[in-house]
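Example record

Each entry pairs one chain with its bound ligand, alpha-D-galactopyranose.
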Amino acid sequence: MSIHYDAERKTFTLATCNTTYQMMVNELGHLIHLYYGRRAEGTMDYLCVPRDCGFSPNPYELRSVRSWSLDLLPQEYSGSNAGDYRLSSVQAVTDSGVWGADLRYLRHEIRSGKYAISGMPSALDRGGDAETLSVTLRDAVSGLEVELLYGVFKQGDVITRAARLTNTTDKPIRLEKAASVCLDLPYGSWDLIHFTGRHTMERELNRAPVMNGIQTVSSLRATSSHQHNPFVILCDHAAGEDRGDCYGVMPVYSGSHRTDVELDQSGSVRLVSGIQHEQFSWKLEPGASFDTPEVLLAFTHQGLTKLSQVYHRFLRGNLCRSKFSNLSRPVLINNWEATYFDFTEELILDIARQAKALGVEMLVLDDGWFGTRNDDNSGLGDWFVNRSKLPNGLEPLIAEINRMGLKFGLWVEPEMVNEDSELYRAHPEWVIRVPGRGPAISRNQMVLDLSREDVVDHLYEVLSGLLTQYHIEYIKWDMNRSVSDVYSSALPPDRQGEVYHRYVLGLYQLLDRLTTAFPDVLFEGCSGGGGRFDAGMLAYSPQIWTSDDTDAIERLTIQYGTSFGYPISSMGAHVSACPNHQTGRTVPIGTRAVVAMAGTFGYEMDLNRLTDAEKEQVREQIVRFHAYADLIREGDYFRLTPVDSTQTYAAWQFVSQDCRETLVSAVESRPRLNLGPICVRLKGLDPDALYRVERQDIFGCRIPPERIPMGGADNVYSGASLMYAGYVLPLLSGEYPSVQILLQKVP
Ligand code: GLA
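Structure tokens for the complex follow.
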């Protein structure tokens, strides 16, 4: 059993392979958090020490016990307006105007298997070892019940949490906040790591000590956003890649989110995470329930790499519904950066022919194939063929591409509409906008109101129609603006605070219906690159376009930041043309491929424009990628260097689960002269085994390969020496050279 209840001491203990989580019901019925961390046996109620603190009030029942205050106790789900001044997890308002919640234990249940939450993706019990703890708390005044749900994944080393809030009265209750999780860390002092950015530079790592006060990581864009990714880490100040206590908090949510971290007066840290509560208000009718999104919690005392590996495996194995999650994906060519909107059937076929000749397996037709879409000012919403560009329609194009032996994939942006479109002219009421105010426009497009059932049904009809009519094996699902002017013409005034969340529920319903009806279609998420790179979208699409910045050197930073939470197999990454269209930089094509191989791998250019020598390289890259594909997709991923301005090179490594094979990649990101050799310590190997360098491929180096000295007499090294002393990288010189080294265990 992973969940144990000690009836005498009223403690719940949850155990995964390497972690323990413990809570208890105290004398007044509050659910007190005791411990989350490294596996530890025994009851830890001794950690909860009574103390008196001025201006921290005492509950009425214990008013003479000055050392008892909710304001000082670690809790599983904090209430509000009842004597705890720290971050609340829930804000409820009754019909008679009473704010707050004082949540007390009502009942609990332990069952095998994993709970589900309605309308949103959540982790699946694929290994058959998950258990569920449900603890129901109740606020006597409002009649609000909060069922705290815990999913314990023993092998996965993950604990999931969500909350179900139910109105048990005969009057409506208004929820002004409904977080998924509250995590109190009464001891220790912590750094907060989170990932921020902007369009074309997503998920840059930020790390700083948690300071007194409250720090917020949030989005109000109805997407998880380029700006603040919802995934955060709390780790001890000394934690690094290989050591240190690290907590991960990953919401399975793709909409407006919020994580607040508070360092309180007594040095305790409280983290509350879930739906963004700004502009959120949910009317709970009598008897109705509201489910929060799920949050995936992980802990390790072994540092950030281990934490990432736990998430990588869990997202691939327990969250992503697609059969492609653990399958090798086709190497694709996307025409966006090759043609933008300016293409013809013949041009696409030319690109496809050349791509096929070099080993590419799928052609993806990007933006511009539909409606009157000749630039980004019109056409969104009209998902029928643009006859001026493709006079013969999609059918012969797909047939010809299939005849060449390529799969065919298509770009769509279903959530959007241009003012200049048939759809908008027919249904102006389907757009999210505040009545009487011209909505903020972005990329000249508006957002369809996915909180409306008729809009979701319409999109299902249109998209399932496309997938039925044409032989489409891949969909790139884009979303190219943030939502604003939030108001739904279909909801009454007292439900307008629900639009943000209902939008996400509509999106999930649509994705759920489509991916269930078309399980053989590979979906790739996208939002102007990585503006919606989150666990919610990964439940439906095993891969997401990581960034609209395809410059290989910029991608080092973006992919590095992304790797902390999300699997390498989920990062859409392509080799694009040089000079790069975003930065103007020129990087050797071999190095571009090394970087794209830390992702799904594909191309985003017209391969016809390459020289014969470059074409030969592309052919070889695809063969090489196939040889490494399983290792990249399912191997353990190790960051060997940070990627920041202090570094001259970036290195990373994949190790097969059985430690028999490892692939090391290194890119020189800043030219260096007269520096000594670089010795990089490898990770994750069997220290007692011998490893042989089977391949060492150098790209973009101006020194001829035969003049590059190699260390190691016979190219055989012990795992211990590679890990503790390191591997000496070949001396590279030139603009952005790189190296890929494959080592295998000597049998
Ligand atoms: C977004 C995507 C790009 C491309 C364009 C098309 O920016 O991220 O890859 O599909 O839209 O408009």
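The chain has a mean pLDDT of 97.
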